[in-house]
Amino acid sequence: MTYDDYLAGKKVILTVATTGGVHGKDANLNLPEQPAEIARDVRECERLGASIAHVHGRDEYGENSAAHLQAVNDAIRDHCEDVIIQNTTGGQSAYESRVRGIRTDPPPEMASLDMGPFNRGQHIITEHTRHNIESLAREMRERGIKPELEAFNNGHLNETHRLIDLGLLEEPYYVNLIFGGGTFSMPSPRNLLNLVDNLPENAEFNVLATGRHQLPLTTMAVLLGGHVRVGMEDNLYFERGRPAENNAQLVERSVEVIERLGREIATPEEARSILGMD
Hints:
Blueprint: H1 3-7, E1 14-17, H2 35-48, E2 52-55, H3 69-79, E3 84-87, H4 95-98, E4 110-114, E5 119-120, E6 124-125, H5 130-143, E7 146-151, H6 154-165, E8 173-179, H7 189-197, E9 203-209, H8 214-223, E10 227-230, E11 237-239, E12 242-243, H9 247-260, H10 268-274
Parallel strand pairs: 1-2, 1-10, 2-3, 3-4, 4-7, 7-8, 8-9, 9-10
Antiparallel strand pairs: 5-6, 11-12
């Protein structure tokens, strides 16, 4: 979780977030929405080195739908070899929809856990109480699901420490540091360094940055001994003015950056070991 980890050659966990629950094919025609589309993208990304697939469900019209997570999970298992499924429990959904992400059959190995509400643009404001967060954390622990702790800002990092103090999380803690607009952390190298400095002990961290910030801040995460999330949920463009052709294109670039910086990509089995899931 430090520059020393980088120097020691610690392996990088690469997560792909293929689709999300906000923008659709109107923003980029290459965005996968249906289960078979998502599964094909995940399969190719796994082949390139992604060990975790962050999963959202969409209905037949492309709208965000937790009810469709089961179908996406089934399709990924049919298409892929060993990728770790990480279902969402986040977004602007009510608690009843959030909890569906950890009640698929079988349950996912991992699930995201937003550390609080956030505001993203004019019309996306989430409601997510401490009671909801604690309830999700308890059920994840009961079901043997590893939470990925989504810290959208500094206050959410405080909430991560609070859950640890309540005894609701098990080491190593996996914290996803998120940068972008709205009430996300402001994207800058200095802010990333500050958040890394304030991580709890015995934590692994991952970096998610939206849009044009994805490449520079995930690259910085590699140098700081952290892990990387990329994909079309967070960034629809390969470079300025050039839409991403698919998720694999973003994953392949990240793999090249990671390897050129002297670190290796973790396999799904190695990712489970790093995160204490084995």
